[in-house]
Amino acid sequence: MEANILLLGARDVGKSALTVRFLTRRFIGEYGDIESVYSRVDRIDGQEICFNIWDSQFTQDNVIAGRPDVLRMILVYSICDRGSFDVVRQQLQQIRRSRKPSSVPVLIVGNKRDLQRHRSVSSEEGRLLALSQRCGFFEVSAAETYHGVLVVFHRLVDLVRETRALRKTNAGVRGIVRSVSAVFGKKRAE
Ligand code: GDP
Ligand code: MG
Asked: Parallel, antiparallel, or unpaired: how do β-strands 36-44 and 47-55 relate?
């Protein structure tokens, strides 16, 4: 299975740090500003998953325009940067305007959890935003741990599986509705 993931968010929230942590288990410190795609293959529950991760520099309009192949998104903000939380809110609106919530699994991630003293966005605010938009939510520190970051990327795979299963169920229900109306349609016609 391919997992195409787009990381979005304001500058300096730690998108590159999260990506590099996931790919190499390391935290380097400085990452530059290159937009790149990275790949890594993982085995999750016996299934091979190829992660393709876009570490993007998009922060303004039309974050997903022209990227129809990107099906999963991680919106990153820094818990110390309220402006970056507002950016996530705006990007979420854009995504919801152009895609059905059920078709795009989105995770909201509050990074830099290690900098508690400088926190300006509470966990509750993050969680509430995620709840109201039916997204997953995590607070992590790319600087501190590998495991927390791993959990985020793996959770996205679970979400994709759930979405697919749900779509199948919905298709099944639609099929039933269609056949029922076909029967009633006939009766009425008689
Ligand atoms: P990007 O612009 O979103 O890709 O952000 P970067 O990954 O380049 O990170 C921006 C700055 O924040 C760098 O100096 C990183 O070292 C730092 N940084 C990233 N993640 C964390 C974190 O979890 N904790 C702390 N303290 N600093 C972080
Ligand atoms: Mg970067």
From this structure: antiparallel
Helices (H), the chain: 15-24, 82-98, 123-132, 147-189
**Does the beta carbon of 56 lie inside 6 Å of ligand 1?**
no
Show contacts of 173-181: CB within 8 Å, 24+ apart. none
pLDDT at residue 189 above 50? no
Q: Is the pLDDT of residue 160 over 80?
A: no
Closest ligand to Cα 88: 1
Q: Give the CATH number of the domain where residue 160 resides.
A: 3.40.50.300
- Total domain count, the chain: 1
Which ligand has the minimum distance to the alpha carbon of residue 110? Answer: 1
Q: Which residue has the higher pLDDT, 179 or 160?
A: 160
Any ligand 1 atom below 6 A from CB of 142: yes
Q: Best substitution site from 6, 22, 31, 111 to test ligand 1's pocket, by max atoms within 8 Å of Cβ? A: 31
Average pLDDT, the chain: 84
Lookup: tokens for 127? 């969680």
Distance CA 158, CA 41 (A): 16
Containing structural domain, residue 83: 2-189
